[in-house]
Amino acid sequence: MRLVQLIHYLITSILMAEDSKTNQELDFDPEALRRKYKEERDKRIRPDGNNQYQKMTGEFSSYIEDPYVNDKIERAPFTDKKTVVVIGGGFAGLLAVVRLKDAGIRDIRLIEKGGDIGGTWYFNRYPGAACDTESYVYLPLCEELDYIPKSKYAYAPEIFAHCQRIAKAYNIYDIACLQTDVTGLEWDDSSSHWTIKTNRNDAMQAQFVIMCNGPFNKPKLPGIEGISSFKGHTFHTSRWDYAYTGGDENGDLENLLDKKVGIIGTGATSVQCIPHLGASAKELYVFQRTPSTIDVRANRPTDPNWVKSLEAGWQKERMDNFNEITLGKIVEKDLVMDGWTEIITNLVSLTKYRQQKINPAEIPALMELADFKKMESIRARVDSIVKDPKTAASLKPYYRLFCKRPCFHDEYLPTFNRENVHLIDTDGKGVTSINEKGVIANDHQYDLDCIIFATGFEVGTGYTNRAGYDPIGKHGLKLSEKWANGIRTLHSFHVQGFPNLFVIGHAHGGYTTSYTHSFDVKAKHLSYIIDECIQQRMEQVEVTAQAEQAWVDKIIRVYRNVEKFNSECTPGYYNNEGHSNPLFAQNSAYGKGAIAYFAILEKWREAGNFEGLKFS
């Protein structure tokens, strides 16, 4: 699931205990905030839930094409056999290849649909795109490659360049099939191999397949009435159209100087690109359904003196420190000291109030009060920056902090002080419709030259739909059929009935805000298993039905601790757009967090008996 799941697992599931402090001491009324949060949530609940979004097919299929490829790579179809095929060239796929090579496995092929490796960071080219986790933690293999990021939070061009740096250092380009979409994956039990078919007429085989399709690889559009009728220009932020806007990832969108631009969506992507749109467009209209939390970013260049102080093992130590803090552990020193660690340190510092020991029964109420206090400071920050009181009021988020992914930015809020920037707050309703001239919201017509959709990616849809292919395992069983009643795995990797197939994703794994850390741990774990198969000359490895069921039961059991919290959150992809779904618990991450999950994997490997797996 996500960070909040661990925090609330740690403190119990009772969120509405009696307040032990007076409103005067707190400077806010907890009960009033609870009512406000509920009102804001309820007005945003839609009967169509996830169906409010539409897929990019038909006339919108161009929205997901690769705009960065100038020349198509010409090659003959592959019909050969490989030991391992890795699907996906983002950080997960790159780390899978690196750790396989570390284990001495060389007969590998990587398949990537983009024109280069990088995955999300190949396609993420909108102005201002950056990671929101500290770059010294987020960018993997920095120490191995003797690379230090340029700033505390790296921008997209540097992150993409780091993906390329990894690929060059580990000779991944030599084994990569770029501009290649997997269209089919089928198991042949007689030969113990998978056949991988692609849009390039490939029919290659592999003994092992690692699926690294990623969670954010398929953009989505809102199902707004009349969306196809607009006569102006449109594009999705995941495929930024610089031919239309001018400029580059650094901004300076000079072609918009005479344009009226509308952007739909105010999530993490919008927070990063809106300052550049506001600086360039003649008029910018920001259509908001729900405001994001905007905390301090305080990005800064890397301190050369700090670099000189680094010792061997510095990145692993920093990654572990970050994970420990953000997953609720009290540590001696915060090495990262950013918005994430500050938030969690305050939320889980259970003895902070009056420096006294706290009765465990009080913890849920104190955690809720700490959350209220943090959100009050975020709302106060809006007032301190945004000059117009009405605009400021609309930009204030009223929900628990981790109901949505927190955002950190120092230029987003000031952008709304520009005379050419207009916040169109739809009071939770969203845009009403689109016509040939522009957007209708709040019963008002907004004539526009361009509409930009910052509406995110498919998350609540089926895994195979997002992947773009449906693996066929033993006896013709499709993965979509296997998971029709919920995801079923062991440790998030293994699926019974699908031997030698491994998934590196988020479901059933341990969540951390630093995705790459989790990817690396999983890559090392899988390379250990695959190497064992090779060394023991085993043709197949498969999870037992009993082990799979036990892990599913554990996932569901742990999730129940935060089910109430999620149901009370404002709608979003974190809680299935506010709709209760019995499969949501089964499809979640391991709720005790990444540290506990990593420990389970390590203990499993140390046991050395490959519990839950059968080899043949």
How would you sum up this structure, described in words?
The protein has 616 residues and is α/β, with parallel strands linked by helices. The chain has a single domain (1-315, 345-616), classed as 3-Layer(bba) Sandwich (FAD/NAD(P)-binding domain). Strands 2, 3, 4, 5, 6, 7 and 19 form a seven-stranded mixed β-sheet that branches. It has a five-stranded parallel β-sheet with strand order 9-18-10-11-14, with helices on one face. Strands 15-16-17 form a three-stranded antiparallel β-sheet, with no helix packed on it. It is globular.
Q: Domains counted in the coordinates: how many? A: 1
Largest sheet: 7 strands, mixed
- Topology-level CATH name: FAD/NAD(P)-binding domain
State the share of residues found in helices, binned by percent.
25-40%
How far apart lie the N and C ends?
34 Å
- Total of helices: 22
- The CATH architecture category equals 3-Layer(bba) Sandwich
CATH superfamily: FAD/NAD(P)-binding domain
Mean pLDDT: 89
Q: What share of the residues does DSSP label as strand, in percent?
A: 5-15%
Kindly name the structural category. alpha/beta
* Highest-level CATH class: Alpha Beta
- Got a strand count? 21
- Unreliable runs, pLDDT <50, ≥5 residues? 4-24, 350-355
Global shape: globular
Radius of gyration: 24 Å
